[in-house]
């Protein structure tokens, strides 16, 4: 199982939870700020570390070599995490995915291939691995899954133009993606972007 930290909701009886996936070299500690920043009292948070050690942090896959084996392994571990959350009383329909950079890629992987519909998926400053494969392997519920995908127009690590093309491809294949661009680097654009995320998450709860 993935090393994890649960941050409970202020509304203790709530069954809504967000599974948070960090980026390359980061850890779950890098997102302990998120619950307070989003300020959603009904939402629990399940922060996890990726499986592989990477220079003091963790990695979801080997970006410098062949990424596919790590991506497939991490996807399976996240499937298992969602299954465990379900057993704990957090149904997939009330479970969000949130991922930054490598975590965004994993959010797209899991969101399009997990066999049950999730509450919503938020992917920030990442990209899709082999979009054609993702479309080919979409779960039956994938075209109903709601995504918010954001990216920075000044991102020096993951240039935006190829990601734009990937999102257009996924949209054409029937994926339900809200695409937002921000004048930012490889980061989260402060309260401006947090408000977009907050609005999306809240709207998914009401849908």
Description of the structure:
- The protein has helices at residues 34-38, 68-87, 102-113, 131-136, 160-172, 190-206, and strands at residues 4-7, 16-21, 43-48, 52-54, 57-59, 95-100, 120-124, 146-152, 176-182.
- The chain is of the alpha/beta class.
- It has a single domain, classed as 3-Layer(aba) Sandwich (Rossmann fold), CATH 3.40.50.1820.
- The strands form 2 sheets. The chain has a 7-stranded mixed beta sheet, with helices on both faces. A two-stranded antiparallel sheet has the order 4-5.
Write down the secondary-structure element order. EEHEEEHEHEHEHEH
The number of E-state strands comes to 9
Q: Tell me about the largest β-sheet.
A: 7 strands, mixed
CATH class: Alpha Beta
Mean pLDDT: 97
Q: What does the overall shape look like?
A: globular
How far apart the termini lie comes to: 31 Å
By helix and strand content, what is the structural category?
alpha/beta
Helical content (DSSP H or I, runs of 4+): 25-40%
Strand order of the largest sheet: 1-3-2-6-7-8-9
Number of domains: 1
CATH topology-level name? Rossmann fold
**Beta strand %:** 15-25%
Q: Note the total helix count.
A: 6
What's the alpha carbon Rg, rounded to whole Å? 16 Å
If classified by CATH, what would the architecture be? Answer: 3-Layer(aba) Sandwich
Q: For this structure, what is the CATH homologous superfamily?
A: Alpha/Beta hydrolase fold, catalytic domain
Q: Note poorly predicted spans.
A: none
């Amino acid at each position: 199982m993935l090393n994890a930290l649960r941050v409970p909701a202020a509304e203790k009886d709530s069954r809504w939870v967000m599974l948070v996936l960090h980026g390359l070299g980061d850890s779950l500690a890098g997102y302990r700020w998120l619950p307070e920043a989003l300020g959603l009292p009904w939402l629990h948070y399940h922060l996890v570390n990726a499986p592989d050690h990477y220079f003091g942090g963790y990695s979801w896959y080997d970006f410098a070599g062949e990424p596919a084996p790590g991506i497939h392994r991490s996807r399976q571990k996240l499937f298992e995490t969602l299954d465990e959350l379900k057993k704990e009383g957090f149904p997939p329909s009330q479970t969000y995915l949130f991922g930054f950079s490598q975590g965004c890629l994993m959010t797209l992987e899991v969101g399009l291939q997990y066999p049950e519909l999730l509450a919503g998926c938020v992917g920030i400053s990442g990209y899709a691995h082999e979009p054609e494969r993702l479309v080919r392997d979409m779960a039956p519920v994938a075209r109903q899954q709601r995504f918010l995908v954001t990216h920075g127009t000044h991102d020096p690590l993951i240039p935006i133009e190829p990601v734009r093309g990937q999102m257009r491809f996924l949209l054409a294949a029937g994926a339900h993606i809200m695409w937002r661009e921000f004048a930012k680097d490889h980061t989260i654009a402060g309260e401006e972007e947090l408000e977009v995320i907050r609005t999306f998450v809240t709207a998914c709860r009401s849908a």
